[in-house]
Amino acid sequence: MGHGIEQDDVFGEVRLNGKRAWHGLGIEIEPGLKVAAAFDKIGLNWDTELLPVFATYKGGDGEQKQFKLPDTMAHVRQDTKQLLSVVSTGYKPIQNREMAEFADALVEGEHGVEAETAGSLHNGKVVFTLVKLPHDIAVTDEDVLKNYILLRNSHDCTTAFSAYVTSIRVVCANTLRLSESDARHGISCQHTGNLKDKLEAARYILGLMTQQTKEFEAKVRLLAAKHMTADDVKAYFAKVHDVTFGIIPEPDGGDEKGRKRFERKIERRDALLARWAQNYENAQQTLDGIRGTAWAAYNAISQWHDHERGRMGTVQESDVRVHSNLFGVSDQGKQRAFRGALELV
Description:
Layout lengths: L10 E6 L2 E2 H4 L2 E3 L5 H8 L5 E11 L5 E14 L5 E6 L7 H9 L9 E8 L4 E13 L5 E11 L6 E9 L4 E4 L4 H4 L1 E3 L5 H17 L1 H13 L4 H16 L10 H25 L13 H15 L12 H7 L1 H14 L3
Parallel strand pairs: 1-3
Antiparallel strand pairs: 1-2, 1-7, 4-5, 5-6, 7-8, 8-9, 9-10, 10-11, 10-12
């Protein structure tokens, strides 16, 4: 399946205000569970193993010979026996339980991390979890940002083990990555060398990253303090559209087909800008303290990315939307919108 949710994948989530977060997808995770317990709950506690790779040669006389390929191992999921990848002998797997234990150890003390979502893609080739941190950011008394760390690991060599800070707006469950680039502000570990030492270093770095939430909190409050006119909002929406989707070029000469394509693109752009304007006026963006601000304008776009963006089925049917929100095209679009909003203050 194109979206990565395959037969042997699982996805779990915490209910939000009595309803399943992320549009009703997945298995329910009880609030307050540690990540390791959540992995057990949804069936993400399987291991992988490295097995030798053999090739079979058939000679001209019909005799078959088998020999072991040097410096090559098959990375296999133990419970389903599915091949996840073919790797070198220097590859060091990071097991799902190690990922869960690392997540649970991110914050020490009485108020530790809690699992919010967890799941796998492509029959377990990619595993991720979103864990809640103790500290929240109050933009206003009614508008709160909950802080999370997203951890992702691949068993097929497509990505390194990585983690970065993100935030979810309680009012409408919009997601926003705190760092503008996980490559610069997150951490990643390749599946080679001494992984235990790397993960310990990553925990220290993530501890420093959580301190950056204070800087992010200051940015959000600047946006909430920036009041905008109707013309300001229109200009912001138009600029974000062009940065996200590109400026629509006018057709050359008398190309009638090109003219019609141009007109259709303009219609789609205008419809999207009208939708953002509608979101800007809804109840979620008109709370006391944020109405008419750059923060409300940003969240109008974020709401569209998280809940309304097309080409992923309906909100109720789309089992890929959550992944796009966290680390796909929707996440990238929200980052552009956030940077554009900061340019207004």
